[in-house]
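Priority: low. Protein: Iron complex transport system substrate-binding protein. Input follows.
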Amino acid sequence: MPSAFTRRRFLGGSLALTATGLLAACGRGSTPGASGSGAWSFTDDVGATARLDGMPTRVAGLNDAIASLWNYGVTPVASFGYTALDDDVNFAGKDLGKVKQVGRTYGEIDIDALAAAQPQLIVAHAYPVDGEGTIDKEKPLYGFKDLKQQETIASIAPIVAIAMTGTARDVVARTTELASAVGVTGQTLDKHKKDYDAAADRLRAATASGVSAMAIAAYPSDGVHIAKAPDDPALRSYTELGLEYPDPGGDGYYWRQVSWENIGDYRTDVVLYSIRDGLDAEELRKQPTFAKLPAAESGQLYPWEFSSMDYVAQARTLNQLAENLEKARKVT
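Result:
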């Protein structure tokens, strides 16, 4: 399960821009072909460098990645991912008619439809295989079924990947570099960063109560998967802002799988449940052992939103979490 929720730390890819002075002047036209009068390049987090004759104006890619660019004003031409855009909270309020959805199930991408959208750049994410942030280059980037599919899609347009490693602030900063590279102005980014910083301050104040939390994805026949904060950039950022998040233990990466019979051993004041997959709050309370947890008995079950890694989405999520923690109380 699981890779759908994993977020990771920036591995240290570098941004390489030629003719940077031209970027601000290049608009986001709708005609095929990269715009601008100078060469453009971007080195991603797996060490691959995308090169074009000019700044790309037609961007497609993984839902989670294009959501960030769209929040900064870059409307994608095509999308693929874990689910349809209509079912993804990251696209709420967006005009989805502007985007060709070429994949609504993980790994199933209509390559002909993607090619017809004429993207100049395709964006994706890279996930590590362990807690050290190791990216296995022998495996496809997140969103692609296999390397063969990825290579076929790379023949349509170059692919750049942002590594989901470390803390959310690192990943957001890296995504911001990509946004800047495709023409988002510093003024726009600075405005959204102020909102993000204000939301972080609010969450920091909310965590001062000492309320503890754990984030889970639970399934009737598979028990409860408890996320490990150090392995998830968003959760890690919450702990850096003061959230008490007990280590669930276990040797596995990212998740600690716990049976329904043993979930009573994991007691926190608040439980964050995944809204992308798994049981919701009402369904969790129908599980007899889970219903006896302090967080369940006190009604402190709150959504765990898989938000895109940008200032806009992260500010929204930080504010929502802060609001929930502000009304929560110690029950353990």
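The domain at 195-327 is CATH 3.40.50.1980 (Rossmann fold). The first strand starts at residue 40 and ends at 43.
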